[in-house]
Amino acid sequence: xxxxxxxxxxxxxxxxxxxxxxWITAIAVAGGTMLGVVFGVIRSSLSPWVTWPLAxxxxxxxxxxxxxxxxxxNSFQAIAGWGWSPFTTSCVVLALYTAALVTExxxxxxxxxxxxxxxxxxxxxxxxxxxxxxxxxxxxxRVGLPSWINVTLGVMxxxxxxxxxxxxxxxxxxxxxVTRLQEPMFIxxxxxxxxxxxxxxxxxxxxxxxxxxxxxx
Amino acid sequence: xxxxxxxxxWAQAMRHLPRMLEGALVTLEIAILSxxxxxxxxxxxxxxxxSKYIWLRAPATAWVxxxxxTPALFQIYMAHFGLGSFGIYLSPYTALLAGIAFNNxxxxxETFRGALRAIPETQTRAGRSLGxxxxxxxxxxxxxxxxxxxxxxxxxxxxxxxxxxxxGVTVGMATDxxxxxxxxxxxxxxxxxxxxxxxxxxxxxxxxxMLGAQLIAWRLxxx
Amino acid sequence: xxxxxxxxxxxxxxxxxxxIDLTVNKGEVVSIIGGSGSGKSTLLTCxxxxxxIQSGRIRIDQTEVHARSTDLNKLRRxxxxxxxxxxxxxxxxxLDNVTLALRKVLGMSRRxxxxxxxxxxxxxxxxxKLKVYPSRLSGGQQQRMAIARALAxxxxxxxxxxxxxxxxxxxxxxxxxxxxxxxxxxxxMICVTHEMGFARDVSKRVAFFHxxxxxxxxxxxxxxxxxxxxxxxxxxxxxx
Lengths: 217, 223, 240
Description:
The complex is a heterotrimer of chains A (217), B (223) and C (240). Chain B has helices spanning 10-14, 17-49, 54-69, 72-80, 92-117, 121-129, 134-149, 151-165, 177-188, 191-220. Chain B is mainly α and 223 residues long. Chain B has a single domain (10-220), classed as MetI-like fold (Orthogonal Bundle). The model of chain B has no long low-confidence stretch (mean pLDDT 93). Chain C has a single domain, classed as P-loop containing nucleotide triphosphate hydrolases (Rossmann fold). A six-stranded mixed β-sheet of chain C has the order 6-7-8-3-9-10, with helices on both faces. Chain A binds chain B through residues 60, 63-69, 71-72, 75-76, 79-81, 153, 157-161, 163-164, 171, 174-175, 178, 183-186, 188-189, 191-192, 195-196, 199-200, 203, and chain B through 1-6, 65-66, 68-74, 77-78, 81-86, 159, 162-167, 169-170, 178, 191-192, 195-196, 198-199, 202-203, 206-207.
């Protein structure tokens, strides 16, 4: 159907790009989630009077385009002489961005645990730590996990932006092929299909989890 | 840790502020246009997705799933480079607008579909039994209520649209905030200062839009 | 005149109406009573064509409701209906709830429509609530607004579908009084109701529905005083 000059090697080139996309996503999500959970618990258990500086910084991370953040951090690390590779810079920026999103997920999930349930737990003689691990965490996980899956997929898609720093991830790999083969539509469709194959099943899984857990309530 | 041999030149960068503000206006313009177009298409997609006709349902579903499962940057590339295969060459401005509108429409379609389901069927019945037609009932009774339910997610989409406009620079967009900053950067090499100012401007735009949305909501939804 | 002949209606496999025959004359008030699931509410939504029927026919002033050639939107202007759920349009003020159809269906100017709407709202005792949104009204007030909204279209017939069932007991009276007033003014009405006292006082005839069949229809004195059908007797002994 498609008459294309694209070879097996070219496809492998794109798949290696997809590997870079997934690798950056994994690092960013792992780091971002750990930070985000800590920030989220802080934000939801301490008074806003204490946590506002944290809230403000996280809000900035969510309100400034990722591209701008990438360029800013990249130029800052150069000025400061840290000598980060574009890969490291990308992972750091995406991880902080992820942390900002995960904080909101965690906060929403913790707030969704009714105060009455927690009071019941405390009146059974549970300590703060027991209440957190035995009651709040399992309940919040159900609310938060589907949103966290969405955040992860969002970061995977947003990671395409790191091409601006010269990293050859999936989209940049496709662009290189487009320039060489002059078949933009076909090559981009292949790239889109790869993104879709990664994202769609996981998105569906998230939807199903959300639905099942909501029905059980 | 910080060994700055670099001298920050904020004054020099600030001289370009008027040009950057012009760019901010273009950014806002694209975001608003893409949202308006996106909302219009999203309403159609939301209705089509629950249609009983497969030839309406299938393309609408495809649109929504592609918009939600591929990067926004990919969608902009498709508009700019991809359509070239068909001899269609969109300017960076149009491609950026088309890409973001496509993305907005896909996300908002799901938002609207959820909102439509939250409106009781009896509202439609009440409209129909007053002698209103199906389209009339949808437009006058259902849609205003749908927009109320969907207002907050739509506001969030507007903020995302603003953030997405920055991607235009990758397809050669030169007149929006990021495009202008990038051009100034290429001439002056004051990367950090210029992009820091841009970051502040983006933040202010996003906050202004949120504030504006709250005012609109307050004005519109008194019930 | 509303003529209902041998109407059968089913939802999937479930038969809801099994051959209903009923004629309602101009100026007549007919109440329909019966247990839940007897099909009485469904009949009303068939009369104004919100629901299709499987066989039989319903004619309103000689126009067949379910004929393909019938313009239902036009026909529905003749038939007002008020539902159990008040179905106020939450995004419109009380006044706009009433003027909407006048302007958009009958094509009236805003001034004309408001004149009529104010009159109808005053008629049902809501003259002081014009600018208020429905969420600020009590259930009884919302229901009276829905009645005014239907009446504003100057229908020839009014259908009432258990209009007091969703109300607090304290608020039932004000809505029933509005219906009584309408009946006294000579409106042709079909009322599906659980209020036996109301059915007795207001109706010319009362019909008892049981499992999709009209088991019995008679003037109220007869139906309540000396019910013929065993199911009617059973039902009435339970609700008393």
